[in-house]
């Protein structure tokens, strides 16, 4: 890979000369989307504040393009870097249009008078975040989610080379979260703008980021691609999760499985079990699941939520051993839920299992 656009070189950051995170060595390239994840208080904002010159660096340096960040003038910095931090903006009597227009100040004269072209860019930026109708509203009198969109518009019309955002999705509803992330993706992939942000939604971080930085209190515990980072044990350790699971296949969080010996047996395949598993989980009913082929989609959730899963190798006829194991478990239960399975040659023993359950009157509706 070519030269980095933003480099953190043996960087130590913290407050009042007390180091919080030390020896950060990270290279970020042009057009990359890099996301900081980690638990509350881990130091994500501290790093973002340090690379945007809002917090003095304790040791090491940050190089932006080819310049040491601390030798860059604020004027130069403002043509290269846009910063979106929602919490510190409390402007007096400014409309949303005024706020967005401040994004053009690096390009206007001393008096900040906007040209026709600047005005067009403000309009375009407001339109890009679907906030044209907010233009004349007082910035202090709009919702937090609306503020987030206005601040993104300001960053867009600043036409930066890099945009730094601290939890930009935290106040947004699902539609605007997706919209914001797709705006960022377009900025990165179509215009080559580098994006560095922190996110709490790790499922979104996984989907949008080229690289992930795991911030863990006193250090960066991992830096790599989403494929390298989003593994169950890495996420579990990072967030110290002991009351649930991270599912790396879907990037989702699952609550702990219901405790106790399973009294319900679920037969399903090809996704038909997912609704049933979730319902049993919500009602705190421990269950067993099977017989599932190891490449069946149901297995991804069953392995997290079921007390026991009886599996078979893909594309083979279900063996006598597997059948007997499933039968044992099924007969130790009180009831069987048939969530839907198509019986063919390979899996005809599931048909036998269901036949026995039916004969014994064990089949119940969900
Ligand atoms: N101004 C400050 N002075 C001293 N310590 C601070 C200051 N701001 C934050 N801290 C401390 O620095 C640590 C890291 O905080 P930081 O805000 O960077 O975490 P974060 O990962 O962004 O957390 P969150 O996800 O909760 O926003 C925390 O222990 C916090 O209490």
Automatic annotation (TrEMBL):
Pfam families reported for this sequence: ABC_tran
GO cellular component, one term: plasma membrane
Subcellular location, principal: membrane
InterPro entries, alphabetized: AAA+_ATPase, ABC_transporter-like_ATP-bd, P-loop_NTPase, Siderophore_ABC-ATPase
Gene Ontology molecular functions: ATP binding; ATP hydrolysis activity
GO biological processes: iron ion transport
Entry keyword set: ATP-binding, Cell membrane, Ion transport, Iron, Iron transport, Membrane, Nucleotide-binding, Transport
SMART domains from the UniProt entry: AAA
Membrane topology: Peripheral membrane protein
Domain named ABC transporter: residues: 6-242
Intracellular or extracellular location(s): Cell membrane
Annotated Gene3D superfamilies: P-loop containing nucleotide triphosphate hydrolases
Transmembrane segments annotated in the record for this chain: none
Presence of keyword Amino-acid biosynthesis: no
Name used for this protein in its record: Iron complex transport system ATP-binding protein
Species this chain originates from: Aminicella lysinilytica
């Amino acid at each position: 890979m070519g030269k980095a656009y933003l480099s953190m070189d043996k960087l130590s950051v913290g407050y009042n000369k007390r180091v919080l995170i030390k020896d950060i060595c990270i290279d970020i390239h042009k057009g990359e989307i890099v996301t900081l994840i980690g638990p509350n208080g881990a130091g994500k904002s501290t790093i973002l504040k340090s690379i945007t010159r809002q917090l003095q660096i304790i040791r090491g340096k940050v190089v932006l393009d080819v310049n040491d960040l601390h030798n860059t003038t604020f004027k130069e910095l403002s043509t290269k870097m846009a910063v979106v931090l929602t919490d510190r903006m409390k402007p007096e009597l400014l409309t949303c249009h005024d706020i967005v227009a401040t994004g053009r100040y690096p390009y206007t004269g001393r008096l900040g008078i906007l040209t026709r072209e600047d005005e067009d860019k403000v309009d375009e930026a407001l339109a890009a975040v679907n906030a044209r109708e907010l233009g004349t509203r007082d910035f202090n009198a709009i919702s937090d989610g609306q503020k987030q969109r206005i601040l993104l518009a300001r960053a867009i019309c600043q036409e930066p080379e890099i945009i730094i955002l601290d939890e930009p999705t935290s106040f947004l509803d699902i539609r605007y979260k997706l919209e914001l992330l797709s705006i960022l993706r377009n900025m990165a992939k179509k215009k080559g703008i580098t994006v560095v942000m922190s996110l709490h939604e790790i499922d979104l971080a996984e989907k949008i980021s080229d690289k992930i930085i795991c911030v863990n209190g006193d250090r960066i515990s991992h830096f790599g691609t989403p494929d390298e980072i989003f593994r169950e044990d890495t996420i579990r350790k990072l967030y110290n999760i002991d009351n649930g699971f991270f599912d790396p296949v879907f990037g989702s969080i699952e609550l702990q499985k219901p405790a106790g010996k399973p009294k319900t047996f679920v037969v399903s395949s090809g996704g038909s079990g997912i609704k049933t598993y979730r319902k049993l989980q919500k009602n705190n009913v421990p269950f067993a699941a099977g017989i599932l082929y190891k490449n069946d989609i149901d297995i991804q959730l069953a392995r997290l939520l079921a007390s026991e899963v009886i599996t078979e190798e893909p594309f083979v006829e279900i063996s006598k051993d597997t059948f007997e194991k499933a039968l044992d478990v099924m007969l130790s239960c009180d009831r069987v839920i048939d969530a839907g399975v198509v019986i063919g040659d390979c899996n005809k023993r599931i048909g036998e299992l269901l036949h026995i359950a039916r004969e014994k009157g064990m089949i119940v509706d969900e």
